[in-house]
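User: What would this chain look like folded?
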Amino acid sequence: MVRHTSLARLRRYADWLDSGIQIPGLGWRIGFDAILGLVPGVGDTAGAVLGGWVCVEALRMGVSAPTLARMLLNLALDSTVGAVPVLGDLFDFVWKANVRNIELLERHQGDPVRARRSDRVFVAALALATAVVCLVPIALGIYLMLRLLF
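Assistant: Here's the prediction, encoded as structure tokens.
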């Protein structure tokens, strides 16, 4: 019962951060995170700190390490891209990292087997992306060296 209460409270908190305010006439929803992001220098950091509470609570609820990594990646992407002037502010209106994190947490709580399968796919994709990011510069360097030498 405690998990459901805590999860419902986290859902309300994430909604407040990401989509708690409706823009009149447009039907768009923004949250406190997007408003904070408008403050240069500290807004996105403050938003990341506030969003970090969802990750801390997820850890307390026993989410798997890959699910927690996905949650932290969502938060890092939100705060990193959000720090870019103008583009970051637009990104904050679209990328709802906290709501995404709650969805990951709910998936983990509701169907752990499916969540583990999804986590494995994520870890494999992350490993592949990391390998590509590491190997492409090496291959490019070898190619350039061979072109210059021969």
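The helical segments are 2-19, 32-37, 43-60, 65-82, 87-94, 97-110, 112-149. If you want, I can go into more detail on any region.
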